[in-house]
Specification:
Layout (H helix, E strand, L loop, with lengths): L13 H6 L8 E5 L2 E5 L4 H20 L5 E4 L18 E4 L13 E8 L4 H11 L7 E6 L5 E5 L11 E3 L4 E4 L4 E4 H4 L7
Parallel strand pairs: 5-6
Antiparallel strand pairs: 1-2, 3-4, 4-5, 6-7, 7-8, 9-10
Length: 194
């Protein structure tokens, strides 16, 4: 009889994750390689940055009559091990209309993470997982402890750079794939960093 301690635990699939009622604590989770990863609530600064950037993107998309939509904390299915991965970025943008029954964001074009010191390793793990999604053109990591953003853009050869483009406090955050641009400082207004 095999030792129960040496057996690998059952990996949850995305389909099982959809139907899972949660652990009863009210915590939120994402599914990473078949395992549940708890997501801690963000700081007030994190939340303000998330809402402000989401609103800035929403307003510019609406003013341009764009078909693209920004979504807060969408479920994202990565291309690698798609059946056991549903990551949850802070913001996502898609230009594909949603369909009845969609539970994950269809064809994300831009994915945005707000970087907190307590979950930096998990955030960067998600960022590199997002590069496997063929529809994604840009990935942004916005820092929550300094006025700084890091951007990854898919190249003309469909490859990804190994280094991020750093946008400093006086720079402009530009998302070429959706025609968005704003002074980076605008993202931090109403925070202690603004």
């Amino acid at each position: 009889m095999p030792d129960a301690l040496n057996r690998r635990p059952h990996l949850m699939t995305v389909a099982e994750f959809y139907d899972w009622p949660g652990d009863g604590t009210g915590r939120t989770f994402e599914l990473v390689d078949g395992e549940l990863r708890p997501m801690s609530p963000g700081s007030p600064t994190h939340g303000k940055i998330q809402m402000r950037l989401g609103a800035l993107i929403l307003n510019q998309l609406a003013a341009a009559s764009s078909l693209c939509q920004v979504v807060c904390a969408p479920g994202i299915i990565t291309a690698r091990h798609a059946h056991i991965n549903m990551r949850v970025p802070d913001l996502g943008v898609t230009c594909t209309p949603d369909a009845p029954g969609d539970r994950a964001l269809p064809d994300p074009v831009v994915l945005i993470e707000i970087l907190s010191p307590s979950n930096a390793a998990d955030t960067w793990d998600n960022v590199w997982a997002y590069t496997t999604i063929s529809s994604v053109r840009e990935i942004v990591v916005v820092h929550s402890t300094a006025v700084l953003a890091e951007v990854l853009r898919r190249g003309a050869d469909s490859g990804w750079p190994t280094e991020t483009d750093k946008i400093e406090a006086d720079g402009t955050l530009s998302l070429q794939s959706i025609g968005f641009a704003c002074p980076l400082r605008d993202v931090y207004k109403q925070t202690h960093l603004g």
